[in-house]
From TrEMBL, chain A:
Keyword Signal recorded: yes
Family indicated by similarity: Belongs to the bacterial solute-binding protein 1 family.
Subcellular location field: Periplasm
Cellular-component GO terms for this entry: periplasmic space
Signal sequence extent: 1-21
Keywords: Signal, Transport
Function per UniProt: Part of a binding-protein-dependent transport system for a sugar.
Highest taxon of source: Bacteria
This protein's name: Probable sugar-binding periplasmic protein
Pfam family, one: SBP_bac_1
TrEMBL record, chain B:
Protein known as: Glucose/mannose transport system permease protein
Family: Belongs to the binding-protein-dependent transport system permease family.
Predominant location category: membrane
A single Gene Ontology CC term: plasma membrane
Keyword Protease belongs to the record: no
InterPro entries the UniProt entry points to: ABC_transporter_permease, MetI-like, MetI-like_sf
Pfam families: BPD_transp_1 (PF00528)
Domain ABC transmembrane type-1 stretches: 88-301
Membrane topology: Multi-pass membrane protein
GO biological process: transmembrane transport
Protein source organism: Yoonia maritima
Keywords assigned: Cell membrane, Membrane, Transmembrane, Transmembrane helix, Transport
């Protein structure tokens, strides 16, 4: 009996002394080559701090991963940390009190002063409390062009959407698919968002997405957008790919002319050893309107009934925003750092364009921070149907789009 | 010897106790106790879960269930959603084709094997093999086979038929048939085995009698054997039917509902609205509609099939 007590006391001491080494399971959906390399930087930094990173990667993108994460949190077996796009996706989890309040970490680290643009932190804030750690800025407003493909077709690389549309015929004649587009609905809806900012302008876009104005959807500016998107449908014929990185690969291989995709695509170019400006070009805002949507990824930390893990979660939150980690992670991922006071190690031409826009304050809030996931899903369904149904007219889609916006909360 | 002793003892004990009519509840007590866990599971999990789902389908539950009543709003939205209509249409097409083709192909294969062909064991294994694979694997395999750049279309074109086109995965008009092929490939083997077992259960004398009467083989199958195999067909029907209603993983693996929304199915609608769209209420409404449809089809059939037997 006495021996047992002694042993127990001993093991208690041992576990107390090893308290600093916390094992945290982190769930995310970063599985493409560039993304996996980037998340590896987080794991390295966390392991270097004497803790242990347990990688819980889920393949298949956010739409596949989010339900798994949510069901684990609701089911009472939460991971220590998980990735979401910051915005309204975690709204209800926060309201239900399932997520850890990070306000004390944020105050200690001075996030309010360093996070730039400030709307990133706003997206993490509910009733004045901060619930997530933003780790990067991603913007949708990019078109990636293959210089090689245009060389093959004997054309100059376009500098805006209008030129791109005009050059599409010549590309097709050269056996190149002008626009690479993956089959998943979020890619098609995302591309539509980019075209709408570029062609309708930021004010009309905000009127639709922020103010939920039906009149704005039915306006002439938006009619142009629906028509342009409808016309773009034929440009992707002949390339049947599903995932976004397969579509990016087609641009890298010069079998496709261009892709409208967020800046995370740049990680794929980097991984393939391509050089910005030489092998590929980029057009922020499609070369029409120089503005970036500051969406991105953030980590949330579920509430757990274990002081040791809670301490570890807060330590990890602080680490994710620390300058060296921000630099190594964002350099690998091709995204922009959330703090304005660090310099990226490798800034190429495209990243520089993004940083310039960020510094100039030419930013828009991300769609996910304005629209609920329910609305986003409905829009995804509508736009993917439009993209894949040649007989559907722009006017039909416009009125269906207006209906969804009218119902949006 | 020992056995008869024992029965004598019980007989005596039975006579010794005062004659009282045993209550019906305590009849077969041990087997009733043994089935309690299953009864409990069925009531709490199946019935309870179903009632819970139906109740919450009248609320505006988002990511988490909340009792905020909205009446029939979720159903109105469901029935005005084009994706839901497409899903139902797809399931109907898939269901009808799959039901008929699985039965026909399954029975034909079984009848052919029943003709005492050589290598029956091997053929049976080959036909049954796909059933051992999950729908996810089946979906992926057929996604590759039907991929125009590396699959069937490419092979046929490589053999010289340049204009050959068969790309159901990228053609929204025929995508459901691409799924159907995969579904049949996976499911027919099992039905064939069940049918074969049924055929083996038919008395040899029936065949002899048919031969004496000069009835042809095909006619014997259709007129005599199939009516005799009614229970086997009912089993197959239930198996195929449940497979159709829960069609989900095959679609996810093979097309993920695309191109566009052209291969959506109700189960997928439920999943995307519940978890992708964080709208539980909408998902519950959709799953309630699925249940209602199944009940409408199943109840009259069950009454016809099993209800009469007790009296008969």
């Amino acid at each position: 009996m006495k021996l047992t007590t002694k042993l127990m006391a001993f093991s208690a001491i041992v576990s107390a002394s090893s308290a600093s080494a916390v094992e945290l399971e982190v769930m995310h959906w970063w599985t493409s080559g560039g993304e996996a390399a980037a998340v590896g930087k987080f794991a390295e930094a966390w392991d270097a701090s004497g803790n242990k990173w347990i990688d819980g990667a889920i393949a298949g993108g956010g739409d596949t991963a989010r339900p798994i994460m949510v069901s684990r949190i609701i089911g009472g077996d939460p991971p220590a940390a998980f990735q979401f796009n910051h915005g309204r996706q975690a709204e209800e989890l926060i309201e239900a009190g399932l997520l850890l309040d990070l306000t004390d970490v944020a105050e200690a680290e001075g996030w309010a002063d360093i996070v730039n643009p400030p709307n990133l932190l706003d997206a993490c804030t509910v009733d004045g409390r901060i619930y997530c750690a933003p780790v990067n800025i991603h913007s949708w407003q990019w078109m990636w062009l293959s210089n090689g493909a245009y060389e093959k077709a004997g054309l100059p690389v376009p500098t805006n959407w209008t030129e791109f549309s005009e050059s599409a015929g010549a590309l097709q004649d050269a056996g190149i698919t002008p626009l690479a587009m993956g089959g998943q609905s979020w890619q098609q809806n995302g591309a539509f968002g980019v075209i709408s900012v570029a062609l309708a302008g930021t004010e009309a876009w905000l009127a639709v997405n922020r103010d939920k104005s039906v009149d704005a959807v039915m306006s002439d500016e938006y009619t142009r957008v629906f028509e342009a998107f409808g016309a773009a449908r034929s440009l992707s014929e002949g390339l049947n790919v599903q995932d976004w990185n397969q579509a990016t690969a087609a641009v890298i291989n010069d079998t496709a002319g261009a892709q409208i995709m967020g800046d995370w695509a740049q990680g794929e170019f980097a991984l393939a050893g391509e050089v910005a400006g030489e092998d590929y070009s980029c057009l922020p805002g499609l070369g029409e309107v120089g503005v970036l949507q500051t969406g991105g990824d953030a980590f949330y930390f579920p509430v757990v009934d274990d002081a040791e893990i809670t301490a570890g979660q807060k330590e990890l939150a602080a680490l994710l925003l620390s300058p060296p980690v921000q630099v190594s992670f964002n350099s690998a991922k091709g995204s922009l750092p959330v703090r304005g006071d660090v310099d990226l190690t490798t800034v190429n031409e495209c990243t520089q364009k993004g940083l310039d826009l960020l510094a100039a304050g030419a930013t828009l809030p991300a769609g996910e921070t304005l629209l609920s996931p329910d609305t986003v899903t409905q829009l995804n369904d509508l736009m993917t149907e439009f993209w894949n149904t040649p007989s559907m007219t722009a006017a039909e889609v416009q009125s269906a789009y207006a209906d969804i916006i009218a119902d949006a909360d | 010897m020992a056995l008869s002793d024992a029965s004598d003892v019980t007989a005596q004990v039975g006579q010794g106790t005062p004659a009282r009519k045993p209550t019906r509840i305590f009849k077969n007590l041990s087997s009733k106790i043994a089935s309690l866990p299953m009864v409990f599971t069925a009531l709490v999990i199946f019935v309870g879960g179903t009632v819970w789902t139906i109740v919450y389908s009248f609320t505006s539950s988002g990511l988490l269930p909340r009792l905020k009543w909205v009446g029939l709003d979720q159903y109105e939205r469901l029935w005005s959603s084009r994706k839901w209509m497409v899903s139902i249409e797809n399931l109907a097409v898939y269901g009808i084709c799959s039901l008929i083709l699985t039965l026909v192909i399954g029975f034909t294969l079984a009848a052919l094997l029943d003709r005492k062909v050589r290598g029956e064991g091997m053929l049976r294994t080959i036909f049954l093999y796909p059933f051992a694979l999950s729908f996810i694997v089946t979906g992926l395999v057929w996604q590759w086979i039907l991929n125009p750049q590396l699959g069937l279309q490419n092979v046929v074109r490589g053999m010289g038929w340049e204009s050959f086109a068969f790309d159901p995965m990228n053609n929204s008009k025929i995508v459901m048939f691409g799924l159907l092929i995969a579904g049949l490939w996976q499911g027919t083997g099992l039905i064939m085995c069940i049918m074969l077992a049924g055929l083996r259960g038919i008395d040899e004398d029936i065949w002899k009698a048919a031969r004496v009467d000069g009835i042809g083989t095909v006619k014997t199958y259709i007129r005599v054997i199939i009516p005799m195999m009614r229970p086997v067909f009912v089993t197959s029907l239930v198996l195929i039917g449940s497979g159709i209603v829960k069609l989900y993983d095959l679609v996810v693996a093979q097309t993920s509902g695309g191109p566009g929304i052209s291969s959506q199915v109700p189960a997928m609608y439920v999943m995307t609205s519940m978890f992708g769209g964080q709208n539980l209420g909408q998902g519950f409404a959709a799953s309630t509609m699925m249940l209602v449809t199944v009940v409408i089809i199943l109840v009259p059939w069950a009454i016809l099939e099993f209800g009469g037997k007790k009296r008969g």
